[in-house]
Write a structure and sequence with these properties.
By secondary structure, the chain is an alpha+beta fold. The protein folds into two domains: 160 residues, no CATH class; 59 residues, no CATH class. The chain has eight helices and nine strands. The strands form four sheets. A three-stranded antiparallel sheet has the order 3-4-5, with helices on one face. The chain has a two-stranded antiparallel sheet with strand order 1-2. The protein has a two-stranded antiparallel ribbon with strand order 6-7. Strand 6 and strand 7 form a beta hairpin.
Length: 224
């Protein structure tokens, strides 16, 4: 895999896999990324023909999921906010993650030049209630790379960051954080009747990490 920034734009996730990783219904993700009829998609896919998502696309859908499933922001408001963002930042390719949004569970906001701009009422200032739970699952490293820590058990602030996705590691597939050990490999060996303790010892990880890898794969299978 290439280590430069372009690796984050490679189309590496099919819609089915991306929906499982994000815990979203397939049709919801398809609507967000493909649109319907005259309705334009909200996320511009790295490969619209296949269709396939890049890692950055995956992060955009993660943030859309935050607005829709956790903050219950209705889609028309999200669409208006995205259009306002594109008007403010016409050169921005991925406004959902390049300009982190904030919400008070009613409207969407961004910070710009020390001010808070209400994106649903363009040009007006608004009071915001900073809700960052989903944004905290995306880590921007000093070298410019990005890591994503998907929710495993539940959407909660105290969810551990044991499972990681990074397109520069294992082709963007889920691994145990700090390693290149695929969660799918751990789960397959566990289901072949290898014990958690034996796997932890072989890979030099804790029992908790092995258990989380198995839990993650079990839940993605259920979401399929």
């Amino acid at each position: 895999m290439r280590s430069d920034e372009s690796v984050f734009e490679l189309p590496i996730y099919g819609l089915t896999d991306a929906a499982r990783y994000l815990r979203l219904p397939y049709q919801t993700l398809r609507y967000w990324t493909r649109g319907r009829g005259t309705v334009e998609p909200m996320v511009r896919l790295a490969d619209a023909e296949t269709p396939r998502l890049s890692f950055v696309n995956l992060m955009e859908c993660h943030m859309l999921s935050a607005m829709r499933t956790h903050y219950d922001i209705h889609l028309p408001k999200v669409r208006r906010a995205l259009q306002t963002l594109r008007n403010i930042f016409p050169s921005s390719c991925h406004p959902l993650i390049e300009h982190p949004l904030e919400t008070d569970a009613v409207n969407l906001f961004i910070r710009e030049n020390g001010e808070i701009i209400n994106l649903n009422r363009a040009g007006q200032l608004g009071f915001k209630d900073l809700l960052e739970m989903h944004l905290r699952r995306i880590a921007r490293n000093p070298d410019g790379t990005i890591a994503f820590f998907p929710f495993v058990e539940k959407r909660a602030a105290d969810e551990p960051k044991i499972i990681m996705m990074n397109p520069a590691i294992s082709f963007g597939r889920p691994v145990i954080t700090g390693t290149a050990i695929p969660t799918a490999l751990i789960a397959s060996r566990f289901h072949a009747r290898e014990s958690i303790g034996a796997l932890a010892k072989e890979y030099g990880r804790t029992d908790k990490e092995i258990e989380e890898a198995i839990r993650w794969e079990s839940r993605t299978a259920l979401a399929a």
